[in-house]
Amino acid sequence: MSETVLQPRLYVALDFADPRLVDPFVDRLNPGDCGLKVGKELFTRGGPDLVRRLVHQGFPVFLDLKFHDIPHTVEQACKAACDLGVRLVNVHAMGGRAMMAAARRAVPQSADSTALIAVTVLTSMDQSTLVEVGITRPLAEQVSMLASLAQQEGLDGVVCSAWEANRMREIFTQPVPAIVTPGIRPTGTALDDQSRVMTPSEAILAGATSIVVGRPITRAPDPAEVVSDILASMSSSD
Ligand code: C5P
């Protein structure tokens, strides 16, 4: 996998309910400094044209739609993501080997293309929610098992909690897996609804290659200043 997918080191989560808020916000950021994460809410409201516009402005885009469906459908959806020119697209490892292999066919592993990463167990799930859906294996084992499946199917890395980053690096033996971690809070910022957080520099030290930060940037009076502070704190951990 090309080292290109290790850039940018920071994705700003664009969790805006109203797509009209995106342009004025994004105008305050520099595409050389950060990527942008578009999730299900914004994509469903703003559609592919919004993603195309962000890509056209030069931002690396993480299309966080966590595909999970029959292999053919996921393959076609991943092709559509590649056609949008996004940097990162993700699928649920719970979709199984055949689904991940189909996604891999759609997202070829080559120098400047889109990278394909897996979601293992959502961090909103705990042991009791796993049991609810019939999974009795300890949560950490389930995460490792799904990450191994993703690695065996040639995926480029995972999106995971920074607390799992080190374990993911042991499983993903490629020289440069993408380990993308949300749940990040710069020192002194509000936790919002996140609980087990790390600071940007702690996440890098813990093995993350890129971090995802939303509200500490989207709600800041000067978002570009927060971006630049975060990048500086990450560089000091290299
Ligand atoms: O605002 P905040 O920094 O908490 O946003 C984090 C972003 O990362 C949100 O878009 C959230 O949905 C996403 N995310 C997360 N935890 C995960 C996976 C994704 O917070 N395990």
Mean pLDDT: 94
Largest sheet: 8 strands, parallel, barrel
For the biggest β-sheet, the strand order reads 1-2-3-4-5-6-7-8
Q: Report low-confidence residues grouped into runs of 5 or more.
A: none
Strand content: 15-25%
Task: Give the distance, in angstroms, between the N- and C-terminal Cα atoms.
Answer: 21 Å
CATH class: Alpha Beta
Query: Which term fits the overall shape?
Result: globular
Q: List the total number of helices.
A: 10
Helix content: 40-55%
Strand and helix layout:
Elements: E1 10-13, H1 22-26, E2 35-38, H2 40-56, E3 61-67, H3 71-84, E4 88-92, H4 97-106, E5 115-119, H5 127-132, H6 139-152, E6 157-159, H7 165-171, E7 178-181, H8 200-205, E8 210-213, H9 215-218, H10 223-235
Parallel strand pairs: 1-2, 1-8, 2-3, 3-4, 4-5, 5-6, 6-7, 7-8
The structure holds cytidine-5'-monophosphate.
Written description of the protein model:
- The protein has 10 helices and 8 strands.
- It is an alpha/beta fold and 238 residues long.
- The protein has one domain: TIM Barrel.
- The chain has an 8-stranded parallel beta barrel with strand order 1-2-3-4-5-6-7-8, surrounded by 6 helices.
- α3 runs parallel beside α4 (97-106).
- The longest helix has 17 residues, at 40-56.
- Bound molecules: cytidine-5'-monophosphate.
- Cytidine-5'-monophosphate binds at residues 13, 15, 39, 122-123, 182-183, 192, 194, 212-215.
